Automatic annotation (TrEMBL):
Name of the molecule in the record: histidine kinase
Positions of the Histidine kinase domain: 240-454
A Pfam family of this chain: HATPase_c
Organism, scientific name: Bacillus yunxiaonensis
InterPro entries: HATPase_C_sf, HATPase_dom, His_kinase_dom, HisK_dim/P_dom, HisK_dim/P_sf, HssS/ArlS-like
């Protein structure tokens, strides 16, 4: 990894966040206080004691005003009583006016958010109501907005939330950018793509993790390379050994066949038959061994356009021939198939025939064997069903594993646990899969080999 000149640890990043948050909050408080002061200085906002001072400055004029003259009073909430407490005039509801008179008699200076300015005149008592909180000078603002104090608090809360969201997003994006470096490295290691350069982070703790991942990457790369070399040598040795064994087997078979033409007694004839049978089995084992090495190598497939109807016809013919020994009743069903598919014809045939031979092997004599083809969700499904005893639960989960031979009652000397394994690998290379279940129609095993149409 390339060296980065300037790095920082997570503790300092957290301190920066707290510092930025604190400065931002102080700035918000100062801004709203200044905004409030400007509103007061420009007269947009009236101070809390504005109406109290206004009333006091007009007290003499209110006292001297004649009864019925409300030119001064109409700008306030007020009520005028006679000396006995009877309401003479005012702009306050009568029930509220009576309550105000009772409060005054009990020496209360206010109620319901209002304070009372009581002015005794010659023939009556005038009570003017006022508040001690800030208000707007403009009547429209006063009508539709909360009082300036509340409005200021609401505005501050909204600004505070916006500050939290902005700082969280900013620092979150910065951390996510550094964490993305870790994610890229782990994703490449997970995919075994180990030939890459690791980008350096600005965070010390992240770089420490990256250093560990780099060491792991190097060790994993060396391990995979050695494993690949060992696997390559193993496959080459197996292939060479299988090829070399064919020569002595051919000689052994030739000699045994020559002995069959000689005059052998019954015991010698039986021994020679056992020799030929053993040679057949050994050749079959060698073919299976070569099949395994080829499937492990993942030989490149030769994709081409296949005429599906003709391909299915060939599969049916070969299956019918293979089923003759057990006199099986081969049932075929083909519906809604495309005219062409794009696949490796030889590999597809081999995979289907592997499944078919398994079904023939496990079917009882004179039983039923079903081969059907259908299309669903852009997939072609080749379905093989037999009338044997079917799969156990364990076999459904593991029958496609390499060398799995399952229940002894479903085993034979011809079964080596690679047929379904090879078929599964082929299906996956063609964008599909293989599914095992039990047939509802024939009550035996059911294998579905599915491949993509394109």
């Amino acid at each position: 990894m390339e060296k980065v000149k300037k790095q920082i640890n997570l503790r300092k990043i957290f301190i920066r966040y707290i510092f930025a948050f604190s400065i931002g909050t102080i700035a918000l408080v100062a801004f709203h206080l200044i905004l409030f002061k400007i509103g007061v200085n420009t007269g947009v906002i009236l101070p809390g004691n504005y109406y109290e001072k206004q009333i006091e400055s007009q007290r003499d004029a209110i006292v001297k005003a004649e009864q019925g003259d409300d030119r001064i009073l109409k700008q306030y909430k007020y009520v005028v009583y006679d000396l006995s407490g009877k309401i003479i005039q005012g702009n306050i509801h009568k029930n509220d006016a009576r309550k105000i008179w009772n409060n005054i008699q009990n020496n209360k200076i206010g109620d319901g958010g209002y304070y009372y300015a009581v002015m005794e005149r010659n023939k009556d008592v005038c009570v003017v109501l006022y508040t001690l909180h800030t208000t707007y000078k403009n009547p429209s603002l006063q009508k539709y907005l909360p009082i300036p104090d509340v409005c200021l608090i609401i505005l501050f809360i909204l600004s505070f939330v916006a500050e939290v969201l902005f700082l969280s997003r900013y620092f979150g994006k910065s951390l996510s950018k550094e964490m993305l470096i870790l994610k890229k490295v782990t994703d490449k290691i997970q995919k075994e793509n180990l030939d890459f350069q690791v980008e350096q982070s600005k965070i010390i703790e992240v770089n420490e993790i990256l250093d560990s991942l780099v060491k792991m990457k190097v060790e994993l790369n060396d391990s995979l390379r050695k494993q690949w070399e060992m696997e390559t040598k193993r496959r080459e040795q197996i292939a060479a050994l299988a090829h070399d064994i064919k020569t002595p087997l051919t000689i052994l078979r030739g000699n045994a066949e020559l002995l069959n033409e000689s005059m052998l007694d019954s015991n010698q004839g039986k021994c020679n038959e056992h020799i030929l049978k053993s040679v057949d089995e050994m050749e079959m084992y060698m073919e299976s061994l070569l099949d395994i090495t080829k499937s492990e190598e993942g030989a490149s497939l030769q994709f081409k356009q296949i005429e599906l109807q003709n391909f299915i016809h060939n599969i049916m013919e070969e299956s019918a021939i293979c089923a003759l020994d057990k006199r099986l009743n081969l049932i075929t069903e083909v519906k809604d198939i495309p005219k062409f598919i794009y696949a490796d014809e030889a590999a597809l045939k081999r995979a289907i025939m592997n499944v078919m031979m398994n079904a023939i092997e496990y079917s009882p004599a004179n039983g039923d064997l079903m081969f059907s083809v259908e299309t669903t969700n852009s997939k072609v499904r080749f379905i093989v069903e037999d009338s044997g005893r079917g799969f156990t639960k364990e076999e459904m989960n593991a029958a496609t594993d390499q060398f799995y031979r399952g229940d002894k009652s479903r085993n034979s000397k011809k079964h080596h646990g690679i047929g379904l394994y090879i078929a599964k690998n082929f299906a996956k290379e063609h964008g599909g899969n293989i599914y095992l279940s039990n047939s509802e129609k024939l009550c035996g095993a059911k294998v579905v080999l599915e491949i993509s149409i394109t």
